[in-house]
């Protein structure tokens, strides 16, 4: 690719580097030696929109996402069960066991201070 621009060039020279490259057409942005993005001029972007390349008519981004085929291997029930187990562990993991609680003045004061957050 001849018309490329690195992230370091953009950081160093800013918009002037981008404008200079856009005079030659669409510009590929290189990040860590990989093509990361393409910058288009406003005229080129408008041409693509008018050609219908941006999205199918009448379909929003959310509708497009929902219309994509599912690729996961888990069903809703297994995800819900896993979440319930995680939440139960998180809730109970920090709480002391009844046998380890000694009712001292210090513990009662700590419990009284923490009570609004525990309820």
Structure summary:
The protein is mostly helical and 119 residues long.
What's the SSE blueprint?
Blueprint: E1 4-6, H1 7-13, H2 15-22, E2 27-31, E3 34-39, H3 42-51, H4 61-67, H5 76-93, H6 105-118
Radius of gyration, CA atoms, in whole angstroms: 28 Å
Quote the average pLDDT.
79
How many beta-strand segments?
Answer: 3
CA distance, first residue to last residue: 62 Å
Helix content bin: 40-55%
Largest sheet, spatial ordering of strands: 1-2-3
Beta-strand content bin: 5-15%
Counting helices, strands and paired strands, the structural category is mainly alpha
Could you state the oligomeric state of the chains shown?
A: single chain
Could you characterize the architecture of this molecule?
The protein has helices spanning 7-13, 15-22, 42-51, 61-67, 76-93, 105-118; strands at 4-6, 27-31, 34-39. The protein is mainly alpha-helical. The protein has a domain at 4-54: YefM-like domain (YefM-like fold, 3-Layer(aba) Sandwich). The mean pLDDT is 79.
Record keyword descriptors for this entry.
119 residues, mainly alpha, YefM-like fold, three-stranded mixed beta sheet, 6 helices, 54% helix
């Amino acid at each position: 690719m001849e018309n490329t621009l690195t992230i370091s060039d953009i950081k160093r020279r800013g918009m002037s580097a981008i404008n200079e490259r856009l005079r030659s057409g669409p510009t590929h942005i290189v990040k860590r030696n990989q093509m990361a993005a393409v910058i288009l001029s406003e005229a080129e972007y408008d041409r693509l929109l008018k050609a219908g390349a941006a999205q199918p008519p009448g379909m929003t981004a959310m509708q497009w996402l929902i219309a994509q085929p599912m690729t996961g291997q888990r069903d809703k029930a297994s995800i819900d069960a896993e979440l319930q187990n995680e939440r139960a562990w998180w809730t109970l993991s920090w709480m002391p066991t009844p046998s380890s609680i000694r009712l001292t003045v210090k513990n009662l004061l700590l419990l009284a201070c923490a009570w609004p957050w525990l309820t």
